[in-house]
Amino acid sequence: MSRHLFFVLFVFALIAAGCATGVVAPTSTPVPPTVVPATAIPATSAPNPAITPGLTVADQEIKEASVTIPSVIAAEPGWLVVHIAAEGKPGPVVGQTLVKVGENANVVVAIDTSRATETLFAMLHVDQGQVGVYEFPGSDAPVKVGDAIVMKPFKATQPATAAPTQSQVQVLIKSFKFGANSTLTIAPGTTVVWRNEDKAPHTVTADDGSYDSGNMGQGAEFSHTFTQAGEYPYYCAYHGGPGGTGMSGKVIVKAQ
Length: 256
What we know:
The chain has one helix spanning 3-20; strands spanning 54-56, 60-61, 66-74, 78-86, 89-99, 102-110, 119-126, 144-145, 148-149, 151-157, 168-174, 177-178, 183-186, 190-196, 205-206, 221-226, 230-241, 245-253. By secondary structure, the chain is mainly β.
């Protein structure tokens, strides 16, 4: 065998050996990312030790279903709570509102007036549970200074019920006329008051005879309340007549 042929065979053998040898690349398992748990944020801040909680109250009349507490001092965010009285002690809650750290002036608390007692208790509570949600009984307990709950009683009177006022309209009888405009439009329930300013006597007499003032001298007054919708013509018996004759007028009652 010639050297040339031997060399060719040797090279061919090397190539064949290289193809037969497989190199497998190593595989790796993906590493999941590290999950860092979120840090819990406390619902409320710690009380400020430099602040002493307290309340200032005043006796008052309930206005617009609310009471006003002049001053509330809180060492941490919390609630100003209004309790009704039960056997001389704080009872169920009838209203509450949030207060901030420090002094809160003229705090208005809407209350359930249907349950309000003559004496109410203003009490300071914490806001330790879900922020902004009043939870008592529960986590939002009353605030204490030492062993004493921060609370004060005060008198709260219900507003007086005003007596219904009756609307009145005055018609001046002057220069032989019933007012500047002889036709008057009013609502049901209105009382019309006629006053004679003339020296001559007059009357206010309904066309249908439903009312009659009789003789009215100077300065005399006569009134009549109109309760039903409709038109009510009238006249002066001395200087006019029914049907709009002479000195006459008309009251028109219109429902609102």
